[in-house]
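Input record, target 12 of the design panel.
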């Protein structure tokens, strides 16, 4: 791909995309196993906040707090991807939980999800791509 077709995103552009995208993928690793979970989330104070229930995701975050979070999307002319690497932590102070309860973050499926998890970024990377037809594959 022509490098002119790949456009790095700045922090403001990445946070704008994170803020308007309702679903992402959380990548975790524990005990040598990798897992990816789709989660709906919100941006909260330059971090990612999501809700979860007891289960594999929460156990793995407890074993290894290092995570990656990815969103992507496209339209007719452009595609884009943003990756947040950081540390995940369960909200455990009641004041944090009470505040999080006021935010517009509800599960997409009919399950009770009492646990809030915050991903605090250590790095962000993002780029957009100009879409178009595939170039000629073989020189004639």
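The sequence produced for target 12 reads:
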């Amino acid at each position: 791909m022509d490098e002119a077709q790949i456009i790095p995103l700045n922090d403001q552009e990445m946070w704008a995309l994170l803020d308007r995208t309702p679903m992402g993928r959380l990548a975790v690793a524990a005990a040598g196993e990798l897992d990816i979970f789709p989660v709906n989330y919100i941006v909260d104070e330059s971090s990612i906040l999501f809700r979860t229930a007891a289960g594999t995701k929460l156990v793995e975050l407890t074993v290894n707090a290092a995570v990656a979070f990815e969103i992507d999307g496209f339209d007719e002319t452009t595609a884009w991807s943003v990756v947040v690497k950081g540390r995940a932590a369960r909200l455990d102070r009641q004041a944090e939980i009470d505040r999080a309860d006021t935010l517009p973050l509800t599960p997409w499926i009919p399950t009770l999800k009492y646990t809030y998890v915050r991903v605090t970024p250590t790095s962000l990377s993002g780029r957009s791509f100009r879409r178009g037809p595939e170039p000629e594959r073989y020189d004639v």
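Strands lie at 6-8, 23-30, 33-43, 48-52, 66-74, 78-90, 115-130.
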